[in-house]
């Protein structure tokens, strides 16, 4: 009867297991399909958008060249024409109309106005240098087009505008007179390289994804590392690339081919995807890199399937082993074998669930905004705030770029964080005398032993690319910040440090924005704003990033109106930590397992006797060892909640009670269940029962 029941259970488990294997295969196949479709769609969108922009620039440039060659324009007309044309194409930074020496007029040797759409004014290039002299570095945008005809110019650093530019140059010619057919000048359609970068960032690339664009010769026109633009060639990168798969993709990109690859980076266990292609209008190379996990989003569904599959497989193996013994009643050796196998399988399942929870990403709360790691996401948030203020008839907020660099960090206790570093802000010069400069840390602990903020730098900085100058103010700080941390999942908890940075006065109508331009990398996994030498004892720093929350206060702070304190944007600098488990396991799990093993030895050694005192004294000693370890845990983690690690202690307390009852009953009384094979049933189920309780608790917490 027992064997038949085991066969039926085995068949049911096998069918269920087979179905779940197929379902997992189908799920992963569908996930891979989603990844491919997302990557291909993003590549097509970017390629189409870039090609449309370049085509519109070429068409408008050719039209201007025809008009300038066929007509004589005055200075006022020229400047009006290039202004109106630049407004037609949003991607353009500006247009330049340059003439050969004395080609504009006999009285004026050089004339080369550039309309900068960003600053809405004109730059006269001839005032900075002789753009017609090919021996001067940085004049290829003009001399190359004049001498060789219409073309896209390799990236160059424009001295007048002080930025890297990408130009489409078109020569225009004399239409009459003795110089008919000769080059009279050029029309240059310009946009700064950040135009490409902003376009790439507007796409959904994930937190660690990036895009790149290269010229025909392989020079970077867009890259997440700003220093590469205009100065680094893909050929050089390909020669030094150690990953053969990625190297082959770079070589194919240089040859104008298209395709995609999968590879693993040296510092990541995640699979990376790299799509590459060429832009049809001018054969520039284009590449997009994605993190596979980020394209898929949360791994919770996949993890649940792995856990379910492992549980089913474990149950199936136990039933198969029981059937393999081929008896209605198990003998002593078979019971021990089943006990050992059950213990191993239970431990494996606990470790799997714990591993998936430990390596998974922190679950973001509804109040948190996504990380601000690019100009597009920052601009979107700021625009939303300005729209809200406009609807409320409030003055427009002024954005104050704010950066932070953490040099030291350590936890004082469970909730207080000691942190030191530097904060800098960029204030518009015309605003300095009208506002109260500086910032506040609202989370500063009321019992902070260190709360030090001192101004170290105050300097006027000349900006580039036509942007206004600004006043740079820097502060060194050392403060103790109170953090609201949740320890329920200790040691698998992921501590999230959030530093709030707010203006001193809400009346100044300021909105602090991350100074992304001051960082080489802004991806969260690159740990923006953190000194690489910063270590947090017992933890691994996973990522850092900026984001926002919007908070409303239930008081007007005496101003007589609550408008200033409703939906106030708060800038946060965040650091995510993951515990290193070795320290926790050595400190807390070893005492638990030592107690369990010692109790088990007592179970094995105990025989039938009338003496109970030794049993009670032994179990009491185990209890006191355990309770002191439990108290140490509570001293380290001060929280009102029950934490995951405590359930190990509670389960061990239960094992102490059950073992004491078992030994007293077995030693004193006649109990058929305990008398069987000298208490073998309880001994064999000792560890499986403990780990079964832990598995149930673990699943209830994390599954």
Polypeptide structure, described:
By secondary structure, this protein is an alpha+beta fold. The chain has four domains: 21-54 and 196-296, Beta-Lactamase; 71-191, PAS domain (Beta-Lactamase, 2-Layer Sandwich), CATH 3.30.450.20; 298-359 and 583-702, no CATH class; 375-579, Acetylcholine Binding Protein, Chain: A, CATH 2.70.170.10. Helices cover 42% and strands 23% of the residues. It contains 15 helices and 20 strands. The strands form four sheets. Strands 3-2-1-6-5-4 form a six-stranded antiparallel sheet, with helices on both faces. Helix 5 runs antiparallel to helix 6, helix 11 runs parallel beside helix 13 (646-668) and helix 13 runs antiparallel to helix 15 (680-702). It is elongated and about 125 Å long.
Helix count from the secondary structure assignment = 15
Mean pLDDT: 84
Give Rg in angstroms: 35 Å
Spatial shape: elongated
How would you sum up the major sheet? Answer: 6 strands, antiparallel
Low-confidence stretches: none
Cα end-to-end separation: 35 Å
Question: What portion of residues belong to β-strands?
Answer: 15-25%
CATH superfamily of the largest domain: Neurotransmitter-gated ion-channel ligand-binding domain
Architecture per CATH nomenclature, i.e. the level-2 architecture of the largest domain: Distorted Sandwich
What structural class is derived from the secondary structure elements?
Answer: alpha+beta
CATH topology of the largest domain: Acetylcholine Binding Protein, Chain: A
What is the CATH top level name of the largest domain? Mainly Beta
DSSP strand tally:
20
Taking strands numbered 1, 2, ... along the chain, how are they ordered across the largest sheet?
A: 3-2-1-6-5-4
């Amino acid at each position: 009867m027992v064997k038949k029941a085991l066969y039926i259970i085995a068949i049911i488990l096998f069918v269920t297991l087979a179905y779940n294997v197929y379902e997992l295969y189908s799920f992963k196949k569908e996930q891979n399909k989603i990844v491919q479709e997302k990557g291909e769609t993003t590549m097509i969108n970017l390629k189409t958008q870039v090609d449309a922009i370049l085509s519109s620039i070429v068409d408008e440039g050719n039209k201007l060249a025809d008009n300038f060659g066929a007509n004589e324009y005055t200075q006022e007309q020229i400047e009006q024409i290039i202004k109106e044309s630049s407004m037609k194409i949003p991607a353009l930074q500006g247009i330049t109309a340059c003439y050969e020496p004395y080609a504009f007029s006999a009285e004026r040797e050089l004339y080369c106005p550039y309309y900068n759409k960003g600053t809405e004014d004109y730059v006269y290039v001839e005032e900075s240098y002789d753009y017609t002299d090919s021996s001067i570095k940085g004049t290829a945008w003009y001399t190359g087009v004049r001498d060789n005809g219409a073309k896209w110019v390799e990236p160059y650093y424009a001295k007048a505008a002080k930025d890297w530019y990408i130009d489409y140059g078109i020569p225009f010619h004399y239409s009459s007179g003795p110089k008919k057919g000769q080059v009279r000048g050029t029309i240059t359609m310009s946009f700064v390289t950040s135009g490409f970068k902003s376009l790439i960032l507007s796409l959904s690339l994930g937190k660690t994804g990036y895009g790149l664009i290269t010229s025909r010769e392989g020079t970077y026109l867009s890259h997440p590392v700003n220093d590469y633009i205009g100065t680094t060639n893909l050929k050089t990168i390909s020669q030094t690339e150690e990953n053969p798969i990625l190297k082959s993709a770079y070589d194919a990109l240089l040859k104008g081919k298209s395709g995609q690859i999968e590879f693993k980076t040296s510092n990541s266990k995640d699979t990376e995807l790299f799509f590459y292609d060429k832009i049809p209008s001018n054969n520039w190379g284009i590449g997009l890199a994605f993190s596979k996990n980020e394209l898929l989003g949360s791994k919770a569904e996949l993890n649940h399937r792995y856990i379910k599959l492992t549980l089913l497989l474990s149950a199936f193996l136990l039933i198969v082993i029981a059937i393999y013994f081929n008896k209605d009643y198990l003998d002593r050796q078979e019971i021990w074998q089943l006990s050992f196998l059950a213990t191993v399988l239970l431990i494996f399942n606990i470790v799997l669930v714990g591993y998936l929870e430990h390596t998974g990403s922190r679950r973001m709360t509804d109040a948190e905004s996504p990380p601000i790691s690019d100009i597009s996401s920052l601009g979107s948030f700021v625009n939303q705030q300005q729209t809200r203020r406009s609807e409320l008839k409030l003055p427009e907020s002024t954005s104050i770029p704010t950066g932070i660099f953490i040099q030291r960090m350590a936890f004082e206790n469970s909730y207080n964080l000691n942190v030191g570093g530097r904060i800098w802000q960029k204030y518009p010069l015309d605003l300095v005398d009208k506002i109260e400069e500086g910032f506040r840390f609202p989370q500063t602990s009321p019992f902070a032993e260190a709360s030090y903020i001192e101004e170290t730098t105050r300097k006027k900085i000349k900006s580039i690319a036509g942007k206004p100058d600004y006043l740079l103010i820097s502060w060194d700080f050392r403060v103790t910040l109170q953090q609201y941390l949740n320890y329920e999942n200790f040691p698998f908890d992921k501590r999230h440090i959030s530093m709030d940075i707010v203006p001193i006065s809400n009346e100044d109508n300021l909105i602090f924005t991350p100074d992304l331009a001051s960082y080489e990398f802004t991806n969260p996994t690159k740990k923006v704003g953190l000194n690489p030498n910063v270590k947090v004892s017992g933890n691994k720093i996973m990522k850092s990033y900026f984001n926002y929350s919007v908070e409303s206060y239930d008081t007007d702070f005496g101003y007589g109106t609550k408008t200033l304190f409703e939906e106030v944007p708060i800038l946060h600098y965040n650091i995510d930590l993951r515990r290193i488990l070795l320290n926790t396991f050595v400190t807390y799990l070893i005492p638990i397992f030592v107690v369990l093993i010692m109790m088990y030895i007592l179970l094995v050694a105990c025989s039938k006797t009338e003496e109970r005192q030794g049993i009670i004294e032994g179990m009491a000693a185990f209890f006191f060892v355990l309770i002191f370890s439990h108290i140490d845990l509570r001293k380290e983690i001060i929280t009102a909640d029950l934490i995951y690690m405590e359930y190990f202690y509670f389960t061990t307390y239960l094992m102490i009670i059950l073992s004491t009852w078992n030994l007293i009953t077995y030693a004193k009384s006649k109990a058929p269940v305990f008398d069987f094979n000298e208490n073998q049933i309880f001994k064999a189920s000792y560890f499986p029962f403990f780990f079964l309780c832990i598995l149930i608790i673990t699943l209830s917490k994390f599954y």
